[in-house]
Amino acid sequence: MRHYDDTKIINWLRIKVFKVEKPHSLPWGQWKIWRADFRATRPVAYFFTESMPAAIEWVHAHTIEYVSNFRYYVHNRASNSHRLDSTLEKGKYHEFSNRMLYSLFDSYVDFIEIEEAYNHLAWATEKDLKKYNVPFWDRYWFFRWGKGWRCEAAAIDHLKWEMTLDTPNPKDPNWQSSPLQAKSAREKMELYVWWKKIRPMRGDAWEVSGLKTFWDEMEKKYGDDFLGIGGRKSMSPAESRKYDKLSNDQSALEQAWDDEDAAMIHRLVDIRKSLWT
Predict the structure, then answer these.
(1) Are 53 and 10 in contact (CB under 8 A)?
(2) How many whole angstroms separate alpha carbon 75 and alpha carbon 144?
(3) For a pLDDT cut of 90, what percent of the chain falls above it?
(4) pLDDT tens across 223-236, in order?
(5) In terms of DSSP H, where are the helices of the chain?
(6) Single pTM value for the model
(7) CA nearest 85: which of 162, 18, 148, 158?
């Protein structure tokens, strides 16, 4: 819930109008004494800077807060924040190993492009909102009911910023060192780029190994049963050796890719504690 006694307008009334010096902290039990003294000596200032914000918070808690909680529920249901999701084609059967891989990494992409993107806009200016084409309904909390706004550019810019947090920046007076955050951001970026850009470029091992081209050639030359499954083998000894080599190449490529997938799953699991917003 929002604390209205610390909003800009209340602080303006407190400091500029009523010249009240409210303590930042007090020992146990002293706040009650401070408020009682403040109320007795300066009732008008007390009303506008203490009583009025408390009343607004009460109204907020019994009206806006209910709407906000319901909105969070709807938003979380729509964005599947309770489970992992994937881009695997619906209506088809997918082996559990593939479901595991795609659910982890597709959900990871959602996290980067939605939640990390929102992180980048935490202190966004109007210029930033235009740069990333943030729709008006995503600029105000009340309108965020459905799936979260997605922006790859904002997500990448946020990761790039995090990656600089172990490199001092003399031009930024607010720069603070965070080596662990920078290290984590580099790993997040590598995993994101691998799944989005690098892995899709693999192609199909059946084609990349050259086996498909050779297979098509043999079918054209000898017919569908060139392997001799139904009888005599049609290929020459040299062609048989080439077939065996290309088959082994395909198997080796599939194994290498499977090993890479497994290694990347392990890396993603290893950084899970840094995937928070």
Answers:
(1) yes
(2) 7
(3) 61
(4) 888 887 766 678 89
(5) 8-12, 30-41, 43-46, 52-62, 64-78, 96-110, 117-120, 126-131, 152-162, 179-193, 205-208, 211-222, 237-270
(6) 0.75
(7) 148
